[in-house]
């Protein structure tokens, strides 16, 4: 892809990002996350804990969050997880608590699905009834399980690389850089695959992997850069002290807000890229398109894609 095509792609992505009001959608996701992050992490801990033990997985999650949110934000999330995992006094309370966890965990991904549907300009068909709602919740909960599975894989890879690093250093020395690079590549690949699953299966449109993976890879790269930038900002801006007692919650909401914008920006990039490839965007049977009259960005003909100058003239 040449410079003219890249500029055109980025321009269209920004136009779609602005039209779909991505900051508003990200704010809604951040608000919903405040009530769903504990149930999601409880399910993730339960899945990954099957191999490593719940306590070890919980510690690993809090350590990761400490690097992203700082001590204050990570402490709040840890308290929320501990509260959700607290044993119930009766069987009824336990069942109600389990139901609340499952509903809350799937609810976050249902909200993300709604945001992705806005990006692709589709909406659920009216009159789908209870079965349609349960099916959507099932897909959302499957995404929660997928997150838990990928965390499990990440922990396995990290443990394997750590063990290999100790073995190699004891015999060869100086190989830590190579193994660290392998760890970063593995982390990038797993993150790309997880984001690809979200972008492909959550929205109510039929997508091909060849259209999803480029956007997922760019989004994964943006997450890697954004994670450092957001962490540096939260560390220097003293957000927590500005909000007093609510400072921990403000840090979590702000981090989720910017992270959601990165994910939805990747979805917009995927949407623009797919249409520019001339692919037909087909809604799933349970959904329908509601494209605005002027439509989304038109597909770019093959001849025009081959000549960036023609693309510039057509714009």
Give your account of this protein's structure:
The radius of gyration is 21 Å and the shape is globular. It starts with a helix and ends with a helix. It has one domain (3-35, 108-314). Helices cover 81% and strands 3% of the residues. The protein has helices at 3-19, 22-52, 54-85, 91-120, 129-171, 176-201, 209-237, 239-242, 247-276, 302-306, 308-314; strands at 122-124, 205-206, 282-283, 287-289. The chain has 315 residues and is mainly α. Strands 1-4 form a two-stranded antiparallel ribbon.
- Gyration radius (Cα, Å) is 21 Å
Kindly report the spatial arrangement of strands forming the biggest sheet: 1-4
Largest sheet: 2 strands, antiparallel
Q: Beta-sheet strand percentage?
A: under 5%
Distance between the termini: 17 Å
Q: What brief labels describe this structure?
A:
two-stranded antiparallel ribbon; 3% strand; 4 strands; 315 residues; disordered C terminus; mainly alpha
């Amino acid at each position: 892809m040449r410079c003219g095509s890249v500029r055109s792609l980025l321009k269209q992505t920004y136009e779609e990002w602005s039209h779909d009001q991505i900051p508003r959608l990200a704010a809604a996701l951040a608000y919903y996350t405040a009530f769903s992050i504990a149930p999601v992490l409880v399910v993730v801990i339960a899945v990954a804990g099957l191999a490593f033990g719940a306590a070890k997985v919980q510690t690993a999650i809090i350590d990761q969050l400490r690097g992203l949110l700082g001590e204050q934000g990570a402490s709040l999330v840890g308290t929320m997880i501990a509260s959700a995992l607290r044993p119930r006094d009766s069987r009824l309370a336990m069942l109600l608590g389990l139901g609340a966890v499952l509903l809350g965990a799937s609810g976050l991904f249902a909200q993300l699905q709604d945001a992705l549907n806005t990006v692709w300009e589709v909406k659920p068909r009216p009159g789908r009834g209870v079965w349609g709602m349960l099916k959507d919740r099932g897909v959302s909960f499957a995404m929660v399980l997928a997150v838990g599975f990928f965390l499990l894989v990440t922990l396995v890879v990290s443990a394997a690389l750590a063990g290999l690093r100790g073995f190699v250093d004891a015999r060869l020395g100086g190989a830590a850089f190579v193994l660290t690079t392998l760890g970063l590549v593995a982390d990038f690949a797993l993150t790309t695959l997880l984001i690809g699953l979200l972008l492909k299966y959550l929205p109510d449109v039929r997508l091909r992997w060849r259209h999803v993976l480029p956007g997922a890879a760019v989004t994964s790269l943006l997450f890697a850069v954004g994670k450092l930038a957001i962490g540096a900002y939260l560390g220097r801006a003293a957000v927590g002290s500005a909000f007093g007692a609510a400072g921990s919650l403000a840090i979590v909401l702000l981090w989720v807000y910017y992270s959601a914008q990165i994910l939805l920006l990747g979805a917009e990039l995927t949407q623009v890229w797919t249409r520019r490839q001339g692919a037909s965007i087909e809604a799933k049977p349970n959904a329908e398109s509601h494209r605005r009259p002027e439509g989304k960005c038109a597909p770019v003909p093959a001849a025009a894609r081959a000549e960036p100058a023609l693309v510039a003239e057509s714009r």
